[in-house]
Amino acid sequence: MYNFKNDYSEGAHPRILNKLIETNLVQQLGYGEDEYAHEAKAILKTRLNHPDAIIHFVSGGTQTNLLVISFLLRVHEAVISAKTGHIAANETGAIEATGHKVITAETTDGKLRPEDIAKVLAEYALAPHVVKPRIVYISNSTEIGTIYTLEELKALFLYCQSHQLLLYLDGARLGHALTAENNDLTLAALSQFTDIFYIGGTKNGALLGEAIIFNRPELAVDFEYAIKQKGAMLAKGRILSIQFLELFKDDLYFDLARRANTLAMSIASAVQAKGYTFLTQPTTNQLFPILPKKVIERLSLNYQFYIWKNIDSDYAAIRLITSWATDEEKVSAFIRDLQEA
Amino acid sequence: MYNFKNDYSEGAHPRILNKLIETNLVQQLGYGEDEYAHEAKAILKTRLNHPDAIIHFVSGGTQTNLLVISFLLRVHEAVISAKTGHIAANETGAIEATGHKVITAETTDGKLRPEDIAKVLAEYALAPHVVKPRIVYISNSTEIGTIYTLEELKALFLYCQSHQLLLYLDGARLGHALTAENNDLTLAALSQFTDIFYIGGTKNGALLGEAIIFNRPELAVDFEYAIKQKGAMLAKGRILSIQFLELFKDDLYFDLARRANTLAMSIASAVQAKGYTFLTQPTTNQLFPILPKKVIERLSLNYQFYIWKNIDSDYAAIRLITSWATDEEKVSAFIRDLQEA
Amino acid sequence: MYNFKNDYSEGAHPRILNKLIETNLVQQLGYGEDEYAHEAKAILKTRLNHPDAIIHFVSGGTQTNLLVISFLLRVHEAVISAKTGHIAANETGAIEATGHKVITAETTDGKLRPEDIAKVLAEYALAPHVVKPRIVYISNSTEIGTIYTLEELKALFLYCQSHQLLLYLDGARLGHALTAENNDLTLAALSQFTDIFYIGGTKNGALLGEAIIFNRPELAVDFEYAIKQKGAMLAKGRILSIQFLELFKDDLYFDLARRANTLAMSIASAVQAKGYTFLTQPTTNQLFPILPKKVIERLSLNYQFYIWKNIDSDYAAIRLITSWATDEEKVSAFIRDLQEA
Amino acid sequence: MYNFKNDYSEGAHPRILNKLIETNLVQQLGYGEDEYAHEAKAILKTRLNHPDAIIHFVSGGTQTNLLVISFLLRVHEAVISAKTGHIAANETGAIEATGHKVITAETTDGKLRPEDIAKVLAEYALAPHVVKPRIVYISNSTEIGTIYTLEELKALFLYCQSHQLLLYLDGARLGHALTAENNDLTLAALSQFTDIFYIGGTKNGALLGEAIIFNRPELAVDFEYAIKQKGAMLAKGRILSIQFLELFKDDLYFDLARRANTLAMSIASAVQAKGYTFLTQPTTNQLFPILPKKVIERLSLNYQFYIWKNIDSDYAAIRLITSWATDEEKVSAFIRDLQEA
Description:
The structure is a homotetramer. Chain A is built from 14 helices and 14 strands. The first copy, chain A, is α/β, with parallel strands linked by helices.
């Protein structure tokens, strides 16, 4: 059985493990004050083309989301998310547990546009009997594999700015978005057209770790307190910074993501060649092909994946995910099995 | 400069890193469902002599404390801690941030005894105008290096049981407690005489990781939800379980802690030989010698450590910590420098 | 201008004010321990036909909802509500502010049925990545004026019981529901077929006050702590209990509600006579007639009410509310103006 | 039995009840938008000599404290209180339930001074491992009957201002403080030398109600949302505003408080005449005489009061409270009984 369920089935890219070994006995300050953190942040700021950005490293995506959102909201404020957004759909009420409502908007492709936000603002106009929307949360790539274009992000950011809303981008799979074929965004553009975003490491080759970027330094003041308070400050913060140092000292981060995308696209081509369609347009390392249930059954004998959504009595959509670690031979085998099924 | 500030200045014990490399490309389920987790839990249950214990692995101590305490308390309930307890003194209001008061008790040695709890219960009798104490939080070894005896733990546990209180033990430095010279506690005894406790990995050779032990399985029902909600569920849970597997498959965990204690005791002997005293009795890998300020100044030229407490115009207490990774030659050098100072 | 905007535009029924004056200088214990509280609870228990019910009086509806729900839920649990439910639509994230998600279900009439709950349970099956539904929140009468039948309530309660869900009924306008023409529920039936509910005083003649009924006494243990903690325990609790004593010592509570309903029905008849329709079936003291905008404009010259929903370019729905205090002559005048408009 | 336990044993001053009756059927907007609110606020602003102050009325003291403090603090910030402060001692963890630590300072007289705050700031210097103190909470009169002088308040406020701390004054018994014999504070002075304070109605003649004063309008922006969210926004807000209108349209508020103080002082004189001492200096309507236990026992036959603190085997301190409603004859009788005891 080979696992296409997700992009965190293996450990870390070997270069990361080697770097951990290489630095292992060098004494460092704890709690994020290690020298590797300073180095990694310097490199990232260059990539962001934003020397004043404030950067923090934490362990995971849900942790990042609850940290950032609860830190920036006042008691009566809320966050807007697509209904498919991770904070709305898959984080066990993490945001609500910090005291804030997640307002959801229906979308077809997992992306929020100014008109979605406008609709929410209209529905939440009866102050003070409703919460006050304050943050717009988006994901890139989204939870259903789609990506934002530069134009889309810019339009959304401008709308947010003109409505006193903060734009926060969840980059759990940012690498896959930025290396997609039709992508025209860069780290520097993200730094320019969001207020806060994070660069996901866990799903792109790190053992664990996400880099939170505050593009407006004034929003980050005192954020260290929150990191500690929510249990997100690792004593050995070096574990996180060393990984980001390795991922970004050259193009490893992008190379790993591109590889995952390429493998996904080869599967997507095979799906299309067989005449099957997709729930959402194949773009990054998450595919949602709609297959005959008999085919799904056959593939299930050798591969693990999620049955994502029932379509009708004969068809269902499945989710296939590739990663930096996906075995090319298994991809070829999967394609063969699909062709034969 | 050599760093005696803490026991998390280096990475991980080499055996742990090797194990991470060895298992790196084996596909595993995410979110704590990996095979290593099952293996590690089985080994720990044997050590605990408690086949029904429920075990979960998370990243750090503050995270563990806030997870366990907020999961077990109802809205009106509170936790009792020594004033020096980590949740009271060093976690940025992490418990209060989940909605609960931390009631503190003054102690001389960082340990809670039935009479301390009795005093709190008397002070918190005016229901419903005060919170209802429900959990007693203790640390072993304590934040000031002392340890509990079997008799002390038993007495406290019996008191808790007869007063509908849960006893929760923070084992961030449990290894050091259990390998101290005058210790008579075991993992099995802890499993018998506490309701919940955790075994700290971060401060004893792991990259990160703590093992939470619910001795009463009924208390652990649904705890996975809380782990996810608080951002503590790692996608690659294997990182935590592999480390505990390695630490407990033989006596590595205890060997590392014993080594730290031994080095600390050699420093302690040198301190005593010079006629200096201690803030608390040297027992584990945390020492609090009271030294002339001039001596402290001299030592500061070559070593990093915390000035813990001013005693008078001439003397102050410092904190020295040794670990599994402490360089023996640096310990010898420190002793020499102390003798000459 | 006469106000049909709501049922809390005036003070209290004169009998209540008289009772406050009559008892004014009798010394009483504070914080809900007054003799009137004991008396009022005894009367209510008789009405509920439930001598073991536990009853508490608090000030308002949002306060009641957040108190009950936050007290009964554990950190990872959530409440299900119709999208029109007050906790979802009109309480400024009060439930989320206590740490819990409100899961909403779309309905056409503001009422939840077992199939709505079943759908939510199916959507929230992926434990532990989603919250755990635990309370079903309904309102009677609903926020759009409809009511539950005995059969509907029973079916929902049985469904809840078989799925480990608590059923909680918001009775802000319970009097109006129980005195509606087609109603077949009683206080005793509510006590039998819900786990917790509250009897609203504020919108039916009291200055302020709601009576919370725990039908299962074990759920109410320690609830006083929560009342105090959330700032809902009045020093002069007598203010609340005296009012409920007066409302329920005979049938005042029901008489006042019936009067409001009767006046609403006379307006409803006039609306129907003119050939207009309603957004929801006129049943209690809240009416949602769909009127030509020109008619609305004309009526707005003499009456205050909410424009509830735009229907199309010519029509809109308005909300009219009558109460115990509504002036009959103003109702007649309104009907006349409507007929002439 | 006559009750000296507290100042909320009776209803409201007759003038207040009369005003409620007089205005009873006048239709008003709900949720604090009634005309009486505008009138009452205008009067109060004149008294405060602060036309820009922002004023809100809510039901009780604990509610006020949790509303103000949770609204003004960010997640990592904390409030400092005397250990005897109501938020620390008597509110069932209401502040912690909103996510914030209450840092306590030991005092002998219930009052905080700059040096107390300085000590706390020194103890909470190890950012980000500790919370960040942000609000200083004081009470006037304090929970043990003492009062602040103008000089003391000014010194504390200046200290707060120079340390980025907000000064918040709990005025549950503010009337009694401002009418004490040795008082030199005024409402205008409070408005000048605090950031926020509240004027307590419940303990000085109102049925219920406290007036929250934001002296810095920018701090009050959006506060209505919080009032609604915490369940503190009464549908019939008129109940609160009408009472404050009546209490402040002339000097009723002060007259009632002065009367309570005068009666307390007559008891205090009798206590002193018998040679007994006090736990704290008799100043306002709360007395803490230290009496022989035999005397206490004798008095307990006819009067209710709290045994406050055991002194030794022969003596204990009791708490006696007088109010606007205290029966003068009962005071005389108490004094007689004391003299004879």
